[in-house]
Every structure is written in structure tokens, then in C-alpha cells.
Write a structure and sequence with these properties.
About 75% of the residues lie in helices and about 0% in strands. By secondary structure, it is mainly α.
Amino acid sequence: MKRILSTLKEKWPEYFLEILVLVIGIYGAFELANYGETRNRKRAELEILKGCKTELVTDLAEINFNMDELRKSQYALNLILEILEKDGSYHDSLAFHFNYTLLPIHFIHSTSSFETAKSRGLDIIYNTDIRNKLIAVYDSQYDFFLKAEQEELAEVQYNMRYIVPERFESGYNFLGTDGFEGSMVPLDFESLKTDQEYLYFIKTQQNRTRSYIGYFYENLRKSVASMIIDLEIEIKRLDR
């Protein structure tokens, strides 16, 4: 025992140094592992945020295109209703506007980057404000909008089945261009002026289109545009 104590007294600086080196080595390895993990997490977060931004920019272009088409539909509905109610005359160009009274428009979008974040755990997005805003856009705004879209498309399909067949030569006569340009020729234009079922359809579709543009699409457009700006700022901050 005395020999052990004597050895410790003589060599304690050496033993202390060895222990210190060992502790520093373990701590350094731990910190290095943490640094590597943090760096990988930040890289993954940045990739997800850039993916979300890219997809939202594409979505915004789709939203703007759809809103432009819906405005054409709104103009067509207003024009046709005015002509019918004021006992106007038929001319060939009206076939174009009749075609726009029923617009089977669909919001084509992507959520793959956000779904990747969800599969990896949304806490991979460190900024809670950005994370909560993304959740609000994708899991709330998009879901709410898509439900409204399904109702709108169901209404279009109903009218194509039950309103168009008895009153027009055919429907969905699109030209195959970038928009929905085409024609829908009425079988008896004059009879439409006193056709209460058809007038009800035009007025209702007019109201639905107005609210669809002004509420559903406009709110979606604002949310997506705002989210893109927030993502741009966050990406710049992380990418320094």
C-alpha cells in the first residue's frame, strides 16, 4: 500500500496528464461528432427548404395561370348573361364564351419536399416560425383549397351531364392549346333567353366563379407568395 501511495505521489502529474489527454480526446471526439451531425442536419434542412421554395414558385405560376383562366370564365358568364337578359343576338364568337362557362380547371401542385420533411420529422426545420408557416400552407391552406376545388369540379361535371346535353351540340371542344379556348354551340340560342334552368345555372356559376377567384384562389395565392418570401430569407440566412 505504501509502495502504491509512493508511486502515486511520484507520478501523479504523469497520470493526471494522461487522464486529461484522455478526457480531452473523448470530449473532442464528441464535439466533432456533434459538429458533423449538426452540419448534416443543416444541409438536409437547407435542401428541404430549397425544394419547398422551388415547388411553391411553380405552384404560384400555376395559381396565376388558373386565376387568369377563371377571369376569362367570369367575363364569359357576365357577357352571356347580359346578352340573354337584354335579348341580344347570337354571333359565332359567342361559342367561345359559352365554352368558358364551364371550366374544368385543376390546381396541379407538388408537396414532395414537405412530405420528405414530414417523413424525416418536421423538427428538421429548426426555425419554428418557418416550420409552422409551412404546416399552415401545406396541411391547412392546400387541404382547404383542394376540398373547395373538388366541389367546384363536381359542379362542372354535373352541369356537363345535365345542363349541356339538351342545349348544346357538344361540350369540351378545346383546341388543345395552352388554355381552354374552344367552342360550345347552342342548339337553340333564342330558347336560352327564357330557359329558367339554364339562366339559374349561369347566374349560380357566375357567383361561384366570383367567390372562387376572390376568396379561395386569392387567399391561396397570398399564402404561397408570402411563404416564398419567407423561405428566400431563411435560405439566405442558412446558406451563409
